[in-house]
Design brief:
The longest helix has 18 residues. Helix 3 links the parallel strand 1 and strand 2. By secondary structure, this protein is α/β, with parallel strands linked by helices. The protein is built from 14 helices and nine strands. The chain has two domains: 217 residues, Rossmann fold (3-Layer(aba) Sandwich), CATH 3.40.50; 85 residues, Orthogonal Bundle (DNA polymerase, domain 1), CATH 1.10.150. Helix content is 41%, strand content 13%.
């Protein structure tokens, strides 16, 4: 679930991608993101108010820097659980300090995020936003800084915490989880068909030598996964490292909480933009959007009941994918699936 988030630097001009290149790439679907949010900015201007968008996965501020540069009246509340990324993004966005609010939180901490909205960001039902962007996954800084432990290609401590100030590390999970729980994580989150064999090997290994580094784990995977199976499917660490990262950071739990929570915050005409990088995330998003874009009239009635129409309509047709030209420019965009919806029904006070 390698995210298309980007790098940044406080010395760069707003909207510049030179700093982003330091961590390997620029934001995914950037032009399309601006295009999808332009109508909510225009609608707010017509209504005589300043629009507010929550970037729930700020990373190093790439999407937000371009949004703020493109729309002079826009305010962005930028959320990230990684304090290092948040500090860098805040410095990068210094030129927009009067229109940018940084929030150190997991993107599903709706109470804290709502409390950080501008006081006037409301409608008749209470606090409200014009848009939300959720670019799920790991930021480029986390992927590319070896010490964070996300990468299987370099040796480093098995940390994998997006917020390194709290919670168990990947090494803790490998040391403490029962075999059956490890197997479930590898099977469900990593879709690893040798999940039980890998879990059993980890339990045997930790009796004498706990696994604490990425190199140790990769070595175990090479020893455990049959050679014939390693010829396809990429690096043998890919699926297991993904599964551990998801478990360490409770990523799917956060997605489950965030998608309905942000949809409920959108004012009429507001838009939600979701970028998912593997099927588990996308299934959660798709399920909720299917529910919200369907009629609420009981099945079998010949007419739609007043007030029971869909809450949202799809803006994208299904999930949009990156073009080949974008993939060539930014390989991490290859797996992204982008869905966008617009609220068409008012919120109930």
């Amino acid at each position: 679930m390698a995210s298309g988030r980007e790098g940044g630097d406080m010395a760069e001009e707003p909207g510049s991608d030179r700093a982003a290149a330091r961590f390997g790439h620029v934001p995914v679907f950037l032009d399309r993101t601006l295009e999808l949010f332009r109508p909510v900015v225009d609608a707010a201007a017509t209504a005589g108010r300043r629009p507010v968008i929550v970037d729930g996965t700020l990373g190093l501020g790439g999407h937000t820097s371009h949004l703020l540069a493109a729309f002079d009246d826009l305010r962005v509340v930028g959320v990230d659980r990684d304090p290092d990324a948040l500090e860098i993004a805040t410095r990068r966005l210094t030129a927009f300090r009067d229109r940018f609010t940084p929030v150190h939180a997991r993107f599903d901490d709706l109470d804290l995020i709502v409390s950080s909205l501008p006081a006037e960001s409301r409608d008749d039902a209470g606090p409200a936003i014009d848009g939300v962007l959720l670019d799920f996954g790991v930021s480029s800084m986390q992927l590319d800084v070896a010490e964070r432990g996300f990468a299987y290609s370099v040796d480093s401590p098995l940390d994998m915490r997006m917020d390194p100030t709290t919670g168990p590390t990947a090494a803790d999970i490998l040391a403490d989880y029962p075999r059956d729980d490890l197997a479930r994580i590898f099977r469900v989150y990593g879709e690893e068909r040798f999940a039980r064999q890998i879990a059993s090997a980890i339990v045997r290994r930790r009796e004498t030598d706990p696994i604490s580094s990425s190199a140790q784990l990769v070595e175990l995977l090479y020893d455990t996964i049959p050679q014939g199976a390693r010829r396809t499917g990429g690096h043998p660490g890919k699926r297991v490292f993904q599964a551990l990262r998801i478990e360490v950071n409770a990523e799917l739990e956060a997605v489950e909480n965030a998608v309905p929570g942000y949809l409920d915050l959108l004012r009429r005409g507001g838009r939600a933009l979701f970028m998912a990088y593997h099927s588990l995330e996308d299934k959660i998003v798709k399920r909720e959007l299917t529910l919200r874009t369907a009629s609420r009239t009981p099945a079998g009635l010949p007419v739609e009941l007043p007030g029971h129409g869909p809450e949202f309509e799809s803006v994208t047709r299904g999930a949009e994918k990156a073009s080949q030209s974008e993939i060539d420019h930014n390989p991490r965009s290859a797996s992204v699936r982008v869905r966008c919806v617009r609220r068409i029904d008012g919120r109930t006070p």
